[in-house]
Each structure stands twice: as structure tokens, then as C-alpha cells.
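Hi V.,

You were right to ask for the full record rather than a summary. Here it is.
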Amino acid sequence: MADPYRMNPNALTPHDLALILSKGSANRWRVTEDEVRADIEAGAPTNPDGTIHLMTYCAWLIRERGRGR
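Predicted structure:
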């Protein structure tokens, strides 16, 4: 696992993104790496190297939730 103080929010692995989202949840909602990977399969944007930009992912997630997914 990467050091959370050295993670690059512009280039996260699915594992690290799940970790950040889980730790940042006020109601202790756990996000798994499998859920992040499923979102990528469903069209969540990734960087050319397969990493994920935190804010772009969050914007996509909000947009998808607004569509009822």
C-alpha cells in the first residue's frame, strides 16, 4: 500500500482510490478496489497509464449517481 501522504491525487491506482474514498467517508462507507474497477469497466475515466484522477473520478461518480446508477 502506498503512503497516503505521498499519493498523487492526479494518478491513483484503483486500490489507493478505494482507500482514500473509504477513509474520507463520514459514515464509514467502505469502497472496495473491486467497486472502483467495476466503475472503470462502466466508463469511469482513467489516465492513459490506467491510473485515476481523483477529482475527475468524483465528478464522473456524481454524474452517474444523478442518472440513477
